[in-house]
Amino acid sequence: MKITKVRAVAVWCPRRRPFGGITRTALGPAAVSDYTIVFVDTDSGITGIGEVSCVFKRRGQLLRNDLEQALALAVVGEDPFRIAYLVQKMDRVLDGVEEAKAGIEMALWDIVGKALNTPVYCLLGGKVRERIPLSYSIPFGEPEQMAAFAVERVGAGHRTIKVKVGSESGANDIAAVRLIREAIGPDIKLRVDGNMGWPTAKHAIRMIRAMEKWDLELVEQPLPAHDLDGMAEVRRNIGVPLMADESIRNPRSAMDVIRRGAADIANVYVTEAGGLLNAMRIFAMCEAAGMPCMIGSMPEFGIGTAAQIHLGVAVTNLGPDSDACGVLYHAEDLLARPLRIENGFSYPPEGPGLGVEIDMSVLERWQRNEPASAVG
User: Fold this and answer.
1) CA dihedral defined by 338, 339, 341, 346, rounded to 10 degrees?
2) Buried b (16+ CB within 10 A) or exposed e, 232-266
3) What's the start-to-end Cα distance of the chain, in Å?
4) Gap between the Cα atoms of 86 and 50, Å rounded
5) In sequence order, which residues have a C-beta less than 8 Å from that of residue 132 and are 6 or more positions away?
6) What does residue 135 show for φ and ψ, rounded to 5 degrees?
7) pLDDT tens, position by position, for the chain (376 residues)?
8) CB 80 within 8 A of CB 1
9) Widest CA span of the chain, in angstroms?
10) Is it true that 3-117+360-367 and 123-347 share their CATH fold?
11) Nearest to 267 by CA among 288, 290, 241, 295
């Protein structure tokens, strides 16, 4: 079997608006998801699908250009079963842009699974668990709004609530954590995510200590990604586990976090890692280091979310509840059959490959920037 063509389609879909306005975190406003859908054709008639999703500055059309003008040339004519080789080849062709590489690599796993008539999770070693427990993120808003939204998500089955902090108002962050804990009660896990929003280790330590009284499960990425010394300082001076997110983008950066004692837990992304192969490598590295992992979200559409779920049911080092429910943050999704996400758990599609199909009418509409109106 040979790859004959790589096709990329830039799409656009609005995010849900839980408080009636644009969703905001310390990373900034996020009104829409500006992503790319990937199709990898083969001479056997099998087509694999993937997704390029990113919340950082290089996204959408820019990543599509990287994919079409460089990465596609590296894989056309090759055997799609040679996934490790093709990941290495894409790395040699273009440094960085892991999200674009992940879109192609995702499609390769889909092709192999379809060719062998087996789900991707079987290719990753088989099921360790039947489903993935989920967290849900509460964006910036008035503390009372955030608390009400947290209660709504608990009512939908989520047993872990993540509060976005790192806003310009530390008082607002503290008030939100307090009101959410009071609203959801003591039995729901509560974590906070700084999204790199706090400027210094000393500031982060002060803020975290002020929040610890509300029984935090963990604190996620309070400092900029590059500040591993600061992350290590924070870790030594707080009473809750520290999780690295943006500091871990690939196996090499994961090793830096491990070596420098910059986190207790790793948040691993399929997209940021460059695909499922590198995500599996990070999980294995962290397991050897005694560091549990969870799966993070951009958030993805249904294709990317499906890839996350296949990973999550197959890895042995899954620790805290994961964010593998990106479709819940969007106004709609493009899958012909929705993923099974219910009562706070994600379940893997059981069909061959990724087990998902695109509703082409939705894809066509998204290309014209005409998604359904934002809801929620």
Assistant:
1) 180
2) bbbbeebebbbbbbbbbbbbebbeebbeeebbbbb
3) 45
4) 15
5) 295, 309, 312, 313, 318, 321, 322, 324, 345, 346, 347
6) -100, 165
7) 999 999 999 999 999 999 888 889 988 888 889 999 999 999 999 999 999 998 876 667 788 889 999 999 999 999 999 999 999 999 999 998 999 999 999 999 999 999 999 999 999 999 999 999 999 999 999 999 999 999 999 999 999 999 999 998 899 999 999 999 999 999 999 999 999 999 999 999 999 999 999 999 999 999 999 999 999 999 999 999 999 999 999 999 999 999 999 999 999 999 999 999 999 999 999 999 999 999 999 899 999 999 999 999 999 999 999 999 999 999 999 999 999 999 999 999 999 999 999 999 999 999 966 655 433 3
8) yes
9) 60
10) no
11) 295
Domain ranges of the chain: 3-117+360-367, 123-347
**Alpha carbon distance 105, 86 (integer Å):** 8
Q: What CATH architecture applies to the domain 3-117+360-367?
A: 2-Layer Sandwich (3.30)
Global pTM reads: 0.95
Give the pLDDT confidence of 313-338 residue by residue, as tens digits: 999 999 999 999 999 999 999 999 99
Which structure tokens are listed for 129?
């668990």
Q: Which residue has the tokens 């959410």?
A: 180
Whole-angstrom Cα distance, residue 354 to residue 343? 22
What are φ and ψ of residue 226, in 5° steps? -80, -15
Note if the bond before 292 is cis, omega within 30 degrees.
no
Q: Which two tokens stand for residue 318?
A: 């899954």
- As a three-state string, the secondary structure of 132-159 is EEEEEEECCCCHHHHHHHHHHHHHCCCC
* 149: amino acid identity, one letter: F
| Domain range 123-347, its CATH number among 1.10.8.420, 3.20.20.120, 3.30.70.100, 3.40.50.2300 | 3.20.20.120
User: What is the per-residue DSSP string for 353-364?
Assistant: BT---B-HHHHH
Containing H/E element for 267?
A: strand 265-268
